[in-house]
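pls design
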């Protein structure tokens, strides 16, 4: 079945009509009768998301219905591909979540097409306070290839990204194994020295996970892991541009230095998409979500308790800073992550590419999703 999607191309700003057939963009021609306020852009891709709308991928009670609920809630936010992110946990808990995710993929086409892979963030991370962030110390451990292979077997190869601390014993050999197996390695939650960062890059590490966050409060001014990752030509960087995790000047510098190798991630917790209020985190601490979307430890507004903003919210925040053009910012949340993943048929609105698209309007500083199209099928309409 053929369908036509019309709108203003987000980059050329010209009216276009896209003929969609069998999940692909068949033709792209000049559109007639296009609503001048409705834009078309590629669907958003979130490389790091821990949960949404009250559901956490890391809770033991996760069900297939909940994975479907998250997938549909993300369609409403313009996200057409995402990586459920599993944080440091026990072997049993990680294995259980992988099983639930796998079952969810095999039971539902939309889930299967939307989960581009699983991101394992831990347990091979720094145990130091600061770099460790909120990852539970008792489950932090050194890289263990056999354990990873066990998880990858449960996941049937769907673990596509692993974030690790390269200074841990055995980490460099572990990175090389991952590269050979086609798993993308990210550097994060690390206390590595500059040489260890360089060794990780030489071994094949591809990007920095939420650069500038999960780090020590105070660092040596010249020789430190942030400068080293920033200076690396090879490393891409993911950034949490939610308005709380990185000050504007730092975001500005990261975007200038990393240019087209910077990617926006939500790193959203399950509190994203919920109303402001007081909540309990899954590790039992009381947290507060205020009206601006800031999530912090109850009674300590300076202590962030993770992110509670969607990827679309991060796009809107970055647009509001005027640090970059709207088209470039959308690319950082859609086309760039697909580039990093090597998915060339999802890089932009081109004939022959897979039709993962959003139609949106800009309204009072926010992006209002009108339609989300997943593999050619309308999966959300306002
Ligand atoms: Zn993290």
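designed seq:
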């Amino acid at each position: 079945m053929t369908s036509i999607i019309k709108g203003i191309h987000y980059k050329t700003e010209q009216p276009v009509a896209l003929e969609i057939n069998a999940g692909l963009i068949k033709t792209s021609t000049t559109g007639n009768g296009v609503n001048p306020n409705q834009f078309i852009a590629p669907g958003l891709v979130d490389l790091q998301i821990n949960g949404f709308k009250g559901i956490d991928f890391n809770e033991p009670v996760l069900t297939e219905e909940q994975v479907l609920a998250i997938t549909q809630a993300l369609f409403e936010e313009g996200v057409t591909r995402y990586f459920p992110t599993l944080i440091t946990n026990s072997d049993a808990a990680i294995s259980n979540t992988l099983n639930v995710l796998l079952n969810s993929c095999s039971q539902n086409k939309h889930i299967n097409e939307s989960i581009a892979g699983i991101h394992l963030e831990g347990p091979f991370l720094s145990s130091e306070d600061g770099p460790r962030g909120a990852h539970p110390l008792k489950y932090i451990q050194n890289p263990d290839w056999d354990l990873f292979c066990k998880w990858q077997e449960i996941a049937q190869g769907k673990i596509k990204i692993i974030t690790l601390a390269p200074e841990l014993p055995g980490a460099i050999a572990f990175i090389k194994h991952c590269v050979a197996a086609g798993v993308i390695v990210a550097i994060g939650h690390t206390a590595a020295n500059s040489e260890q960062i360089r060794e990780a890059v030489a071994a094949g590490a591809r990007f920095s996970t939420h650069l500038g966050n999960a780090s020590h409060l105070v660092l040596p001014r010249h020789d430190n892991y942030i400068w080293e990752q920033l200076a690396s030509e090879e490393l891409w960087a993911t950034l949490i541009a939610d308005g709380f995790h990185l000050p504007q000047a730092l975001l500005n510098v990261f975007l200038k230095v990393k240019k087209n190798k910077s990617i926006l991630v939500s790193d959203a917790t399950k509190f994203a998409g919920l109303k402001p209020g007081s909540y309990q985190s899954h590790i039992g601490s009381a947290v507060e979500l205020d009206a601006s979307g800031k999530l912090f430890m109850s009674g300590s507004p300076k202590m962030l308790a993770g992110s509670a903003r969607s990827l679309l919210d991060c796009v809107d925040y970055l647009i509001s800073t005027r640090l970059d053009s709207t088209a470039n910012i959308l690319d950082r949340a859609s086309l760039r992550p697909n580039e990093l993943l090597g998915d060339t048929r999802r890089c932009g609105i081109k004939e022959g590419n897979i039709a993962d698209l959003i139609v949106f309007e800009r309204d009072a500083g926010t992006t209002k999703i009108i339609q989300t199209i997943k593999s050619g099928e309308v999966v959300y309409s306002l």
